[in-house]
Amino acid sequence: MAKKKTVEETDVKYHAPALEKGLDILEFISAEGRPLSQADIAQGIDKNPSEIYRMLVCLEQRGYLLRDEISGKYKQSLKLYNLSHRHSPIDEIRRASHYPMDDLADSIKQSCHLGVLYQDKLIVVSQSRSPVPIALSIEEGSTFPVMLTASGKVLLAYMEENERLELLKRNTLFKEYPLRKQQKFIASLQEIKADGHYITGSDLAKGIMDVTVPVMNADRAIACLTIAILSVQLKEEVSLEEIAVKAKETARRISVNLGLDA
């Protein structure tokens, strides 16, 4: 059982020991994903069992933990899930991305859009239009095959391996690939993650270049920011790599607005 890095081991300006202890407990039980005894939890967060007894009782009484009557082991209830879903996460992403994306579109004079995974497809949840009269625009609510979009490939690249393989096993296009082509596709995802961004010609339309960066929460991408540029609009004075740098800063601002670890 891996020990969780407690808040005392991080650089925190202000401490609230009781609250921190409770959060350590919730985060550790969530990470383990199975019922745990008081001793298991104490060991996992580097505390004595007696130190966490009152906190466990409190969390159980408030409905955040469930305690098995026979084994005495604790597991998380659905209370945190219900609290987090009182507000749509998509609405939160839209609000957090609005001003950063508008600033980016104004800076590079190109439209940009934000995509997330939805039922194994890529769905556009937010967009900011270019301030110039002629520019490519991807409408909110549009859905695309995940394997045929730059955004989809970036999201796949940052998934945990098991989760990615499960999604690909369900994907009709991937299943039609011969083994060597499947291996090549997965290897390309590793290259995308190593680069930290993806610049490519569109698989869905000729004459379009996509510049895509992940919106991160720690080591996981929760969304992708993409600038789709008509090839005839590419200018020598602003390279695609420079656009990628600006897009990464915009993605970082979105993560910060969402309260995530960028």
TrEMBL record:
Keywords: DNA-binding, Transcription, Transcription regulation. GO terms for molecular function: DNA binding; DNA-binding transcription factor activity. The keyword Nucleotide-binding does not apply. The keyword DNA-binding applies. Residues 79-260 form the IclR-ED domain. Residues 16-78 form the HTH iclR-type domain. GO terms for biological process: negative regulation of DNA-templated transcription. PROSITE patterns: HTH_ICLR (PS51077), ICLR_ED (PS51078). SUPFAM superfamilies: GAF domain-like (SSF55781), Winged helix' DNA-binding domain (SSF46785). InterPro entries: GAF-like_dom_sf (IPR029016), HTH_MetabolicPath_Reg (IPR050707), Tscrpt_reg_IclR_C (IPR014757), Tscrpt_reg_IclR_N (IPR005471), WH-like_DNA-bd_sf (IPR036388), WH_DNA-bd_sf (IPR036390). This is IclR family transcriptional regulator.
